[in-house]
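Q: Here's a chain of 192 amino acids. Please give me its 3D structure as C-alpha cells.
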Amino acid sequence: MDLSKILPWLALVFGFSGWFKVFLDYLSNKPKIAGQIINVFRGRADLGGGIATTFVTYPYIHNLRKNSMHILDYRLRVEIEGVWIGVERVYGIENAPSFTFETIGGDPVEVPEFSKKLIYKKDAPVQHGVPLHGWLVFAGKIELYEKRITSYELTCIDVNKVEHTIRTKTDHMNDLLMVQFAEIRNAHILRR
C-alpha cells in the first residue's frame, strides 16, 4: 500500500469534514420556529371602523434549533374554499378595559387578565424546548364570520425580518388544550 497516494485523500476528507462542521453549525444556529395554532375564537366586534370579524388566536410556538429568537410581529391568513385571505392584526388590544367572549348560546367565557396573556406582552424569546404561547387578535371583513374556514396560517416575523410560517387545519385544533393553556373560566361550556 502506497502511503503517498492515500495521504492526499485523507487530508482532503479531513479538510472537508471541518468545513462540513462549520456548515452544520451555521445551519443549527439559524432559528426555525414551529408549532401550531391551538384554537381561534371567531366573533364580531366594533373596532372603531365598523363591525369586523375578529380572530382571537391562541398559538403555541417553539424553536426547533438551539438558539433563541424574539418575534417582532405576526400575520394571519385564513383558508376558505382553497383561497387564502389575509386578515389584519389588531394593535393596542392590551389597552382595552375588558375583553370577554360569548358562546353562540350567549354564555360568557371569561379569560382573566387577558392583556397579560397576549403573546407579545410576555417579552420572552422563542427558545429550544421552551414553548411560547398566548393570545393574538386579528380582524377581517364582516363577511368572513359566516364562511367555513378550513385552515389558518400564522406567520411569525423575527427580529431579523425572517418569516416562519405555521399552518394548522381547523380539524386539528383542540378546545380543551386551549382551556388548559389560557386558563379560561367557565370551561365547562367548551367541553366536547
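Q: Can you summarize the key feature?
A: Residues 3-28 form the longest helix (26 residues).
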